[in-house]
Amino acid sequence: EPVVHRTDAVVIGAGPVGLFAIFQLGMARLRCHVVDVLDTPGGQCTALYPEKPIYDIPAYPKVLAGDLVDHLLEQAKPFTPHFHLGQQVERLERTDGDDAWRLTTSAGTVLEAPAVMIAAGAGAFGPNRPPLPGIEAYEGTGVFYFVAKREDFRDRRVVIAGGGDSAVDWALSLSEVAARVMVVHRRAKFRAAPDSVARLHALAESGAIDLVTPYQLKGLEGDGPHLSGVVVADLDGNTRTLEADCLLPFFGLATNLGPIATWGLALERHQITADPATCQTSAPGVFAIGDIASYPGKLKLILTGFSEAAMAAHAAYGVVHPGEALHFEHSTTTGVPTLP
Ligand code: FAD
């Protein structure tokens, strides 16, 4: 028999919006548990761009994504949330007594709560993998889908594949530390911010970056975990091998709701339909906030998600305490409350 955790609210997803939801739930004196399939909190900020500066968080003219996550964790800390990391929420259903929601994770953890905040971002997000035979053997050693630390690439020969903003930005950035940066793209034209593309071409002209276009990825060379080369082919199928230690394919994020699509919630494409007044989904007590929420005019921005977390936490109070409305107070009046 699995241990059943009973709490006021379960937050699915520990991205920036899920983390702020912990705080907002706490301000409403609601306890919560948080589940994320990744091993570390922070969602896209941690997994995809921890060292990039964000410029549109209110009152932070500039904040590194990783630092934003650290601040959100610190802000949530007084409410002692329970994290269940490295596990995916697979099932969401009513409890036998129909008095709460029951969530079951891939690790067999069972959580029960009257309110659920789905802050699952792009869902079971993962990188689009290039279809190269045997690529799994190099993932984490020679093939990386995001840059956690720029320093990891110092003095290494790096092949970057892709033609969008990520590929161009990282080519510019890594050219400052890597021994060599080669950019493989199947077209001569890059689809990224014009300033960045201009800088890329300038660096290519000065020899600081090699542009390998129009070419596509064809295969990998090396022994098991150690990559030694990346095979590329032109449009006529002529191949050449680029000697390299690392390959960084930037082919975008696969957005796939994963198990969430099977929970019977009203959906719009890859998002969950939410009531813009409360963020409640088609299921009473289940809220959708952050990138996963859809309503007319929705902006997929962190700051919008923060506001949705506040609205959903207020509405969740009425779900946890039926018939009671949350008395609205400013944090300057209440301070950070201690949970009952
Ligand atoms: P996410 O950050 O996507 O987090 C969702 C979490 O839910 C993930 O950790 C995922 O593992 C987890 N999850 C999903 N399904 C399950 C499940 N079934 N069980 C358990 N866990 C699950 N936004 C800005 O406002 N300003 C910017 O400057 C900016 N720059 C960006 C730059 C880049 C390169 C990228 C990729 C995005 C940028 N964004 C920016 C967008 C911003 O990162 C997203 O809007 C934000 O991360 C959304 O937060 P979230 O918490 O809703 O979802």
UniProtKB/TrEMBL annotation:
- EC top class, as a word: oxidoreductase
Q: Which InterPro entries match?
A: FAD/NAD-bd_sf, FAD/NAD-binding_dom, Fd--NADP_Rdtase_type_2, Ferredoxin-NADP_redctase_2
For this protein, what reaction is catalysed? 2 reduced [2Fe-2S]-[ferredoxin] + NADP(+) + H(+) = 2 oxidized [2Fe-2S]-[ferredoxin] + NADPH
Cofactor list: FAD
Which residues of the sequence carry a binding annotation for FAD? 36, 44, 49, 89, 125, 291, 332
Which ranges carry the FAD/NAD(P)-binding domain? 8-303
Q: Which Pfam families match?
A: Pyr_redox_2 (PF07992)
The keyword RNA-binding belongs to this UniProt entry's keyword annotation: no
**Could you tell me what the cofactor note in this record states?**
Binds 1 FAD per subunit.
Q: Does the keyword Transferase apply?
A: no
Q: Report keywords, A-Z.
A: FAD, Flavoprotein, NADP, Oxidoreductase
The record's EC number reads 1.18.1.2
Annotated GO molecular function terms are:
ferredoxin-NADP+ reductase activity; flavin adenine dinucleotide binding; NADP binding
The record's family statement is: Belongs to the ferredoxin--NADP reductase type 2 family.
* Subunit structure and binding partners: Homodimer.
What name appears for this protein in its UniProt entry?
Answer: Ferredoxin--NADP reductase
Q: Which organism is it from?
A: Roseospira goensis
The upper taxonomy is: Bacteria, Pseudomonadati, Pseudomonadota, Alphaproteobacteria, Rhodospirillales
